[in-house]
Amino acid sequence: MPRRKPRADAQRNRQRILLVAKQAFARSGAETSMDDVAKQAGVGAGTLYRHFPTRDALLEAVYRTEVEKLAAAEGKFAATMPAGEALRAWMLLFVDYIDAKKIIAPALNTMLGDHTQVVEASFGEIHGAIRALATRAVESGEMRGDLDPIDLLRAIVGVSTVGSGPDWQQSAKRLVDILIAGSRPTKR
Fold it and tell me: pTM value?
């Protein structure tokens, strides 16, 4: 029997819980109170636990939701923007994803211990999205043929790792523009 689609109110509750939980994990880390998350999301504890039976399940869902948003943006940007602009917009969103991951990672490490499987699964989605956007940009002639999309990710991740100050995001976003400009074909 096919699984039935959740009711609209249940989907809204789930999304609200995930948003509140992301903010709560950022504030309080792994010790975030599940009851506080439920209260701040405006749902009962039963509703929270029906969607997320454990703190680990909630934390993993928050992380996966961030990855899903990033992966889904590839299709949206590709459908609505020129190829080079879509690649740039996705890379800027990737900077925001890294920020969310930096917030969630300490709690993820504490709660899930070895969260390698969770993170490795996300790499496939992220790499697939940037490869599709970069391929489109190369094929359109907006980017050089030797563009390696993984190099773009490495550069941004590198800035986020080295720059732990409050302005690392602005620096990473400037780097996106530098990378895009440097990836354009040379004019002869």
Answer: 0.79
